[in-house]
Design the sequence.
């Protein structure tokens, strides 16, 4: 399978898994800890996929999707991170940081998708008032839009990462990125530790 | 009918929007109960339109509200007009209460605990790639999947159970604004999860420092060992201070990346490895 085809399939899979984060199920199948090794395996680098995935998970676990908040998207981060390494040819360390940025940058896209659906309320009400009680097609439409948006985003960001890899002088970033990458587990563990420590001190 | 509602509740947030939040998913999940209660006609239409109004709660806990509202609609269809009058207030009160409980249990505790479980399973299988970013030895793919899947399995079993239990409990006591709020000892559960989460966090951090010391012990000078242990402590402190100033984890990550690129990329200092 060519790199491009693998990237295409991986993006589609990321789009599908991404639905689990908010739209459907919410079994945590969209978490970077799972998306990382899965896409890594699909692209021939399961170890790097798992490492990128779990480190993103440790950073992204800091964000809680309460109320209307759109947290950074962990699925997009893991998918772009793994594909930037596997298909874009970047070192895992740089791919990881690109993944972090890609997950954060997806939030405005997600926000716009949610905001766009507000306009559907009047249409749905009019449909129901007219006697057509089928709500299923509106939900299906929302699912397809979310899936397509995330898959397209992952593919586009992977393409950008591959272009970045072609730039002269990128390799000069690697020693620093590698070192920073080696410290990321500690940053993630810190978040995990202080989250529960705060809860204990607040007494529930 | 309850089982159909249960299955549909997995799509509660499919139509999430900023104007009315989970309204579309809620109406969709409630539809089997409304169709059974009103059996078509204008009353069914009016009931469905009622539930296309604003609604928002924690998605797993929504089933408590769904069950309650299904019972209220049944009673309204049977002629109890007070139910229609009280419905918006009861729905809103329950949505807020269960959102607060659900956010604490699922987002605040169980979700991070799935990551802890993943790390502990990986550590138990001898895979330390989550700590040693330079590790090149690839474990079996089954081991790589076992970590995240163990956390996901525990989380999903509990969340699916709560969805089903909530639907049944809400349906059993439907009609009041405090219905099913006592379905479990929530404060005790929250305290237990906090304690378990903290214990696992502590175990993982101690394990990480133990591995760091163990892998470097005897392989480098004491001064180097101190530096290698001091650096992670500095990272922990940086994160703590950044949080105290309201900065997210990305601020700390960006700072570490910028400093590292400056030192080892632009100033060309010799980088060292945290692990040997």
Sequence:
């Amino acid at each position: 399978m060519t790199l491009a085809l693998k990237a295409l399939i991986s993006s589609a899979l990321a789009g599908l898994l991404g639905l689990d984060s908010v739209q459907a199920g919410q079994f945590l199948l969209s978490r970077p800890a799972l998306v990382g090794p899965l896409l890594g395996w699909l692209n021939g680098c399961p170890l790097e996929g798992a490492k990128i995935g779990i480190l993103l998970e440790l950073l992204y676990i800091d964000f809680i999707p309460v109320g209307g908040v759109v947290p950074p998207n962990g699925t997009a981060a893991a998918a772009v991170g793994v594909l930037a390494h596997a298909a874009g040819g970047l070192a895992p360390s740089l791919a990881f940081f690109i993944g972090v940025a890609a997950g954060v940058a997806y939030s405005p896209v997600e926000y716009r998708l949610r905001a766009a659906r507000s306009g559907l309320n009047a249409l749905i009400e009019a449909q129901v008032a007219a006697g057509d009680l089928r709500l299923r097609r509106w939900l299906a439409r929302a699912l397809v839009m979310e899936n397509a948006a995330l898959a397209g985003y992952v593919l586009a960001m992977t393409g950008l990462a591959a272009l970045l890899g072609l730039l002269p002088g990128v390799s000069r970033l690697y020693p620093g990125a590698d070192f920073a990458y080696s410290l990321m587990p500690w940053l993630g563990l810190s978040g995990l530790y202080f989250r529960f420590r705060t809860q204990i001190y607040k007494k529930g | 009918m309850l089982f159909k509602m249960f299955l549909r509740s997995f799509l509660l947030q499919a139509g999430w929007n900023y104007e009315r939040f989970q309204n579309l998913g809620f109406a969709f999940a409630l539809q089997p109960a409304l169709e059974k209660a009103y059996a078509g006609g204008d009353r069914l239409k009016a009931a469905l339109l009622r539930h296309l109004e604003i609604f928002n709660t924690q998605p797993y806990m929504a089933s408590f509200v769904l069950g309650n509202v299904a019972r209220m609609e049944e009673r309204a269809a049977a002629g109890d007009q007070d139910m229609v009058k009280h419905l918006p207030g009861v729905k809103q009160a329950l949505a807020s209460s269960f959102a607060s409980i659900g956010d604490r249990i699922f987002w605040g505790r169980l979700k991070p605990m799935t990551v802890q479980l993943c790390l502990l399973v990986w550590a138990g299988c001898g895979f330390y790639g989550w700590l040693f970013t330079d590790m090149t030895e690839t474990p079996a793919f089954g081991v790589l999947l076992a970590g995240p899947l163990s956390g996901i399995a525990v989380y999903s079993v509990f969340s699916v159970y709560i969805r089903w239990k909530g639907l049944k409990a809400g349906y059993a006591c439907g009609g009041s604004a405090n219905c099913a709020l006592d379905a479990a000892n929530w404060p005790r559960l929250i305290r237990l999860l906090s304690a378990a989460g903290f214990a696992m966090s502590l175990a993982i951090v101690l394990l990480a420092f133990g591995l760091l010391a163990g892998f470097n012990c005897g392989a480098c000078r004491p001064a180097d060992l101190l530096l290698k242990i001091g650096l992670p402590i500095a990272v922990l402190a940086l994160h703590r201070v950044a949080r105290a100033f309201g900065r997210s984890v990305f601020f700390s990550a960006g700072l570490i990346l910028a400093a590292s690129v400056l030192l080892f990329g632009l100033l060309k200092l010799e980088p060292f490895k945290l692990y040997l």
